[in-house]
TrEMBL record:
<feature type="domain" description="RagB/SusD">
    <location>
        <begin position="353"/>
        <end position="473"/>
    </location>
</feature>
<keyword id="KW-0732">Signal</keyword>
<dbReference type="InterPro" id="IPR012944">
    <property type="entry name" value="SusD_RagB_dom"/>
</dbReference>
<feature type="domain" description="SusD-like N-terminal">
    <location>
        <begin position="25"/>
        <end position="223"/>
    </location>
</feature>
<dbReference type="InterPro" id="IPR033985">
    <property type="entry name" value="SusD-like_N"/>
</dbReference>
<protein>
    <submittedName>
        <fullName>SusD family protein</fullName>
    </submittedName>
</protein>
<keyword id="KW-0472">Membrane</keyword>
<dbReference type="Pfam" id="PF07980">
    <property type="entry name" value="SusD_RagB"/>
</dbReference>
<dbReference type="InterPro" id="IPR011990">
    <property type="entry name" value="TPR-like_helical_dom_sf"/>
</dbReference>
<comment type="similarity">
    <text>Belongs to the SusD family.</text>
</comment>
<dbReference type="Pfam" id="PF14322">
    <property type="entry name" value="SusD-like_3"/>
</dbReference>
<keyword id="KW-0998">Cell outer membrane</keyword>
<dbReference type="GO" id="GO:0009279">
    <property type="term" value="C:cell outer membrane"/>
</dbReference>
Length: 474
């Protein structure tokens, strides 16, 4: 059996190859731990290399960086900062099909899916008995299925219906698939996650490895995000996650000080080893560093800082945002005075700071939401969970006293707790609050930011390169 190499972002080259019958490796840039070309996979070691390629492929711009642009800059947590025109378009809701981020996010996520598909196609056929020792073959297939589901979860929330590519294309027709419906994409995501759940390992010291806790948490988030949320399922999988041996860190600040990696609260944590390392994140993270001569990306908004202040939320504010004197910097800013300029404080060690894809507080608050949504009296059973999260940062119990007020209380709590972790925009989307919240945004002087958001602006446009190569995707 041969590893099938293909790339959705190199369709033009593939078309030429299909016509000429020649062989070629179309990956423009090979991940550090992905094997090349015409390689036969007949051993357990080959299976491990394939799986390493899936994890290694996640050290791309999307999972290192753009998930925060999409989750926080699109929302009311951060301005674009920096001088990147693609980020600024996303911030101002003027994104078009030629936006550079839109193109690289689409291609990056489909490249990730390609890597997962290669595992799912090749590993079942490897005839090596050592691969079945301790159910390793099933673990690998479960990890690949869960990761493919995760990649599609991002695609469907960013673009709506997208093509479902579940095997390596072998023809131009298979390369030019039409968009599946949103419901079809969610059905496939759930199918992949449910098939993965019994097979992945229960725990792992390295929180970057797929485990049952990650799969349960993803299922809870998926059932909350689909067009018709299933709140009973959200509660079921949130409960399964919470009972999986996790616990809240006693100190909120220690989650981000860089000295408590893979801690008890982390469910899924991307692992970084520094600029220049195989798992390096890069030196452009939105850190507290000043004196560099250029403005860091992702500047906290006036609205977010005001929300922390209004709540008296000193602990989470200080852990999430820090103010420095940037008066000596040569750049200007439309939103803040440079003498007291805000920087994100959750990535303090710059290129070696890990990032949380999912942590326990997220799932506790999601369970509270599920309880509140299932009945008019559910707010009373949701309250202890919300108060648990607030208590860690020395805040009193939530004043919510009915379903409607609890709904807003949970929304606010998720914002203050999870700022700059890539969740806010997707929370606003799934609760149908994005248009109202974003059109109410004001600068620090009380002037409207005039985002003029409409339902048509809630999803990314299909990248122009994809429109050009696939006539069936319109």
């Amino acid at each position: 059996m041969k590893l099938k190499i293909y790339s959705l972002v190199a369709a033009a080259a593939l078309t030429i190859t299909l016509q000429s019958g020649c062989k070629k490796d179309f990956l423009d840039k090979q991940p550090f731990n992905q094997v090349t070309g015409d390689v036969a996979f007949t051993t357990a070691a080959g299976a491990e290399k394939l799986m390493a390629g899936v994890y290694g492929g996640m050290y791309n711009d999307y999972h290192i960086w753009d998930y925060m642009i999409n989750g926080d800059v699109t929302a009311d947590n951060a301005y674009a900062g920096g001088d990147n025109p693609a980020n600024i378009q996303i911030d101002l809701f003027t994104t078009n099909s030629t936006n550079g981020n839109v193109g690289r996010d689409w291609s990056g996520l489909y490249a990730n899916i390609k890597n997962a598909n290669e595992v799912l196609e090749n590993v079942p056929n490897i005839q090596d008995p050592t691969l079945d020792a301790n159910s390793r073959r099933n673990q690998i297939l479960g990890e690949a299925s869960a990761l493919r589901a995760y990649f599609y979860f991002h695609l469907v929330r960013l673009w709506g219906g997208v093509p479902l590519v579940l095997k390596s294309p072998t023809s131009l027709e298979e390369m030019q698939k039409p968009r599946s419906t949103v419901d079809e994409v969610y059905a496939q995501i759930i199918k992949d996650l449910e098939s993965a759940l019994p097979n992945v390992r229960a725990t792992a010291a390295n929180k970057g490895i797929i485990t049952k806790g990650i799969v349960n948490a993803l299922l809870a988030k998926v059932y909350a995000s689909k067009p018709n949320p299933d709140w009973a399922k959200v509660q079921q999988y949130a409960d399964a996650t919470i009972s999986g041996g996790y616990s809240l860190m006693g100190s909120f600040d220690q989650l981000f000080d860089g000295n408590h990696k893979n801690n008890s609260e982390a469910i899924w944590e991307m692992q970084y080893d520094g600029w220049g390392g195989p798992n390096g994140r890069g030196n452009w993270m939105p850190s507290v560093i000043v004196g560099t001569g250029w403005k860091r990306f992702c500047t906290p908004t006036n609205d977010l800082v005001a929300a922390y202040d209004a709540e008296g939320d000193v602990i989470r504010k200080n852990a999430s945002v820090t103010f420095n004197n940037a008066s000596s910097e040569g750049w200007s800013d439309d939103y803040w005075t440079k003498s007291s300029y805000p920087y994100i404080n959750k990535y303090r060690k710059d290129d070696v700071s890990d990032s949380y894809f999912i942590r326990l507080a997220d799932i506790i608050l999601l369970k509270a939401e599920a309880l509140n949504e299932q009945s008019a009296s559910g707010w009373s059973t949701a309250k202890p969970l919300v108060d648990q999260i607030r208590g860690r940062v020395n805040l009193g119990g939530t004043p919510a006293t009915d379903q409607a007020s609890m709904r807003l209380a949970i929304e606010k709590e998720r914002r203050l707790e999870l700022a700059f972790e890539g969740h806010r925009w997707f929370d606003l989307l799934r609760t149908n609050r994005a248009v109202a919240v974003m059109n109410a945004q004001k600068d620090g002087k009380g002037n409207s930011l005039n985002y003029n958001v409409t339902s048509a602006k809630l999803l990314f446009p299909i990248p122009q390169a994809e429109l050009d190569r696939n006539p069936n995707i319109r």
